[in-house]
Amino acid sequence: MNFVFICDFEGFMLEDQQVGEWDYQLSEDYKTVEGEYEMSETRYGFTKMSVNEFKIWIQKQGNYNYNGIQIHHTAAPSYANFYKADGSHEDELVRQNNMKSFHVNSNGWDDIAQHFTIFPNGTVVTGRSLAKTTAIGIKGWNTNKICIEIYGNFDKGKDVMSEEQKQAVIAVYGELCKKFHITPSISTLRCHAWFTAGGSFLGDYIPGRSAKTCPGTNFMGFGNSKEAIQNNFIPLVKNYMYGNSTSNTTNNTTNNTTTNFTVRVTSDTLNIRKGPGVSYGISGEIGKGEVYTIVETQNGWGKLKSGVGWINLNYTENTSNTTTSASSTVSTGNFVVKVTTSVLNIRKGPGVSYDITGSVKKGEVYTIVETQNGWGKLKSGAGWISLGYTEKLK
Ligand SMILES: [Zn+2]
């Protein structure tokens, strides 16, 4: 077996190719924690799951011998391939099967390289069986390693990871570490970028020597360096696993600002901490959709005006530049907006508590027929978008 790199796929555009029979299943195994079916589906031998379904699914898998997890991004395909102009997105299982076809037919491998792919919408799709405890992902670091491909190109200036995908990534790494008794560290969670193409371990991303940039030079906003993973990614995974991580401190004060702004919480729950970092104790919790005024920021954390503590701003969206943030402002009268963020979710209603029905992309122009609380209803009827990430054209 020739274990070479798998990312930056060339020739992956097989979207219209119909492969095999569609084999739709909905298994008892994939009930959500609330006991309701979400989106689990199996085709081509791959199963797609929500994060909640993955949490249950992984507990039912065998106790295989794993001692590390690889970190990759797909680079190509990227968000531009996943999200379509009409706000829909490609079929995750078709994409996964096309990746397998490429790995098997073009690269001559025994199977798809990765054990899991995490898609831009937070969907998790199985790949090679966990029973195959040798990955194909990082030459020199494949034995007893889990290979995860994070769908997107997270190099600087490319895709900005969606909140849904970020939460899924943290949860999947956390759940796998728990399942296989892996302690998160830079020895157990390693980027492809820390290795040469020949399989030598560099210990860090070194441009010109690294095999790849995986998982991207701007992965999750902090990048692919040893320091970035150690100070940011590892604490996020540990915090997911243990709730109150004591690891690491990034207390160096940077980016101090004193201009007030408001944010809306985008994760289901978010801890309030006594200081700006996961090393500080938890002093409370806030919930999705709630809006708070931030009076000071440090290292990506924001201090609540109430004085209760600090929250991680990665799990919020800024609502200050929303033109109509007064509550229940309803207006009619059509106008046209241009999307200013790379990917913007379309939701069933005017707020983050509503389900996502699709997405729109930077530079695209849409007609808004109604507004509420800073959200605009698309003329197409596809749903609502947050106007804070758009500019009004006329
Ligand atoms: Zn890679």
Description:
This protein is of the alpha+beta class and 394 residues long. The chain folds into three domains: 3-243, Lysozyme-like, CATH 3.40.80; 256-325, SH3 type barrels; 335-392, SH3 Domains (SH3 type barrels, Roll), CATH 2.30.30. Helix content is 16%, strand content 26%. It is built from five helices and 21 strands. Strand 18 (365-372) and strand 19 form a beta hairpin. The chain is globular and about 60 Å long. The termini are far apart. The chain binds zinc ion. Residues 5, 7, 72, 192, 212, 214 line the site of zinc ion.
Number of helices: 5
The figure for the number of domains is 3
For the record, give the distance between the C-alpha atoms at the N and C termini, rounded to a whole number.
59 Å
- CATH class identity of the largest domain: Alpha Beta
Q: Pairing-aware structural class of the strands and helices?
A: alpha+beta
Give the biggest sheet: 7 strands, mixed
Distinct small molecules: zinc ion
CATH superfamily membership of the largest domain, which one?
Peptidoglycan recognition protein-like
